[in-house]
Amino acid sequence: MIIIGHRGAMGHAPENTLEAIQIALDMGVDWIEIDVYAVENDMVVIHDDDLDRTTNGTGAVMDHTLAHLRSLDAGNGQQIPLLSEVVNLIDGRVGLNIELKGPGTAAPVIHYLDNHLPAPWRAEQILLSSFDHAELMEAKKINPKYKRAALFWTGEIDYDFVLNDLEAVGINPSLRMVTKKMVDTAHSHGLSVLVYTVNEKLDMERMRHMGVDGIFTNYPDRALDTNRHEKINYVELPAVNLPATKAFFTAAFGWSFRDFGPAYCDFSGEGLDGGFFQSDQKARADEGSALVVFYSDDLEGTQAKVVAAGGKIFREIFDFPGGRRFHFTEPSGNEFAVWGQPLSSD
Are 32 and 95 in contact (CB under 8 A)? Predict the structure, then answer.
C-alpha cells in the first residue's frame, strides 16, 4: 500500500506549501499530491478556488495576478508555491500526483511537463487527477503519456468511461464511498485504487485489508507507522452471545466495548491501539459474527492472556493463507477466534 502525502504533510504544516512537502519527503512517503491552478503563464499550488481559508488574502484565486498571489502568506511565512518549485524540491525522489483544479489547467500543465520537467524525473512518476473529467480528457488528447486517474466523491463509477474514454490507470475515490466490492471491481478492470483522505490508523488498516493500492493522508507518519506493523490481529466474536464474550475480553485485557450493530463492535484497550473493524465479507455478517481489530505483534502473548483469564484452546494454532489463527473458548463456552496476518513493509 503506497503512502501519498496529501498536499504534502498537511497535518504537520500548512497545506500545499514547500514546508509541508519537505516534511512529507522527510517522513518517507512514496508520492506527494498537490493541487494546481493556471494563472497567467504559470501554475500555482493551492487547493481552494478562493484565498480565504489557506492564505492571508481574500477573493477568488483566478481574480488575482500571479504577483499578488505570490506575495501572500500561505502559512508559517510560506509563499503559495509554483508547480516548478515543487518539482525541483521533490527532484524525482518520489512520484507526484498533480490534481487539476482550475479551469483550463490541463494544457499549461502538460506544456510544462513536456518542456520543463527536469532530470531525473520520468513521465511515469507523474499522475494527473481531477474531479473535472473533461480536464483529464483534454490531458489525454494533448499528450496521453502522463498517467490519469479519475477522482470521485460519491455516486456510481462508470468503469467503461474511466477505461475507454479517459483511458485512466485508476480511480481515486473518497474514503466514505470505498467498499471491498469497489476495490475488487476496479482491480478486475486493471485499475488501481487510491483512496482519500485516510487519516485514522483504523481506516488505514481497513483500507489495507480491502486491498487498496494506496492512500492519501494528511499524516504520512501514521500511515508509515501502520505499514511497519509486523502483524494485524483481529478477533471474531459470536454476535449471538456478545455480552459474555465481551465481559471475558474486558476481564482479560481491560478492553471496553461499544456496539455498532449486530455484525460489528468496537473497543478501546489499555496498551493496544484498537477500534472498529467493519467486516467486508457478507458471509460473516450473515452469520452474525463481529470482527474487532486491534494492533499487536504478539500473538503468543495474546494466547497467554486468554488462557490466564480462564480461556481454553479449542483448536490448536494453525496456518491459513497469509497468516495464523487461534480458536478459543472463554469460560462460559463461547467460541471465538484470534487471527494474525503478517504485514509487509511495502
Answer: yes
Using CA atoms, how far apart are residues 320 and 304, in angstroms rounded to an integer? 21
* Residue 210: predicted pLDDT: 85
Tell me the residue length of the chain.
346
| Mean pLDDT, rounded, for 203-220 | 89
Q: Does residue 277 sit in helix, strand or coil?
A: coil
> pTM value?
0.69
Give phi and psi for 134, each to the nearest 5: -65, -35
* 47 is annotated as an active-site residue: yes
Q: Which three cell numbers stand for residue 273?
A: 491501539
Contact present, 126 and 147 (Cβ < 8 Å): yes
Of the residues 6, 64, 133, 229, only one is catalytic, namely 6
How far is Cα 126 from Cα 75, in angstroms, rounded to an integer?
26
310 has a pLDDT exceeding 60: yes
pLDDT score, position 334: 72
Q: Transcribe 185-206 into DSSP letters.
A: HHHHTT-EEEEB---SHHHHHH
* Tens of pLDDT, residues 57-81: 999 999 999 999 999 999 999 999 9
The catalytic position among 47, 133, 209, 229 is 47
Q: Report the C-alpha gap between 293 and 338 in whole angstroms.
A: 10
- Domain positions in the chain are 2-227, 231-342
Contact 28, 42 (CB under 8 A): no
* Alpha-carbon distances of 133 from 33, 48, 103, rounded to whole Å: 18, 18, 12
* Fold adopted by 2-227: TIM Barrel (3.20.20)
- The residues with which 289 forms a beta bridge, in sequence order, are 238
Q: Is 68 a catalytic residue?
A: no
- CA torsion sign, 305 to 308 to 310 to 312? positive
Q: Count of CB atoms within 10 A of residue 318's CB?
A: 9
